[in-house]
Specification:
This protein is mainly α and 341 residues long. Helices cover 63% and strands 4% of the residues.
Amino acid sequence: MRPKLESSTAFTHQSGSARDSVGSATNRIQRPKNFPPGPPPVPIFGNLFHFNIKNPLKDFVKFAKQYGNVYSLFIGTKPAVILTGLTAIREALVNKAADFSGRPNNLIKDITEGKGIIIADYGLQWKEHRRFALMTLRNFGLGKQSMENRILGELEHLVAKLDKYAGSSLYPQTLFHDAASNIIYLVLFGIRYNYGDEILKVYVRLYTENTKLANGTWAMIYDALPILRSLPLPFKKAFDNYKTLKTLTLKMVNKHRETRVPGKPRDFVDCYLDELDKRDNGSTFSEDQLIVYIMNLHVAGTDTTSNTLLTAILYLMAHPDIQSLNFVLYLSFTLHLKSGY
């Protein structure tokens, strides 16, 4: 009879634990003391149901109007503070940068395994790689005339492409991503691709898909409900895309190695490989880190630039009067330059 008693006791304990877990999950989520205001969360899901699954970004603007530029949300049961507007963001990320330098455990961090620099934790790895990037990018023209010349050179290709399609339709998203990608590739690998190149198409498509997933509702669901992470839901595609990007980037690095001369760097990748040769096994520098680093710099150097250009084009299309005014200002400026004054 003794085994029965133990089994019964174990069942009672498990049932009690299950009840406690369910009870704690379904309890009302309370905002901590002095926490910013925000929409009321529901048990387990927090504020997930407050978002439009197709375009959650609009809801952030709506909440800012309702609760102010500093408000709070619950991603599942996890609290989050949302900053809106230049003043609030500058106060946190510039004036108190060290206090807000941490990174959350989220979809992108799991995909990259905390490597790279964008989503890496604030520590030795982040500090060393940030220092290396600033020094190396400056050596290759960041903030100097040589970088401006690279950008102007790519603009010539961009304008030629636009002229070719004058009077007909053109898909600008791919074009601007291609142009921005070429500028960063010139710094990273010393190469540029023709617009429409198949390799460039794959890179741009995968980066664009992952950026949309990372900024969408499925990423919030991934962060809020860990129990769903093993299911074949849309966020799984971000992991698959990332693996493909890593494989492609590794092939580029290996091909680049074939023509590399140690100690005579031609570009960012050569500089990193030279640094890797100098470091010992305990260093934060590694080949795997380089691959993720390249991907970080690519997406950081292309996504924001291309999206800014696309937004500007969209606003000009929506406001033809401003478009006409800009054209007049452009003509007067070019005439001024030609006149020599």
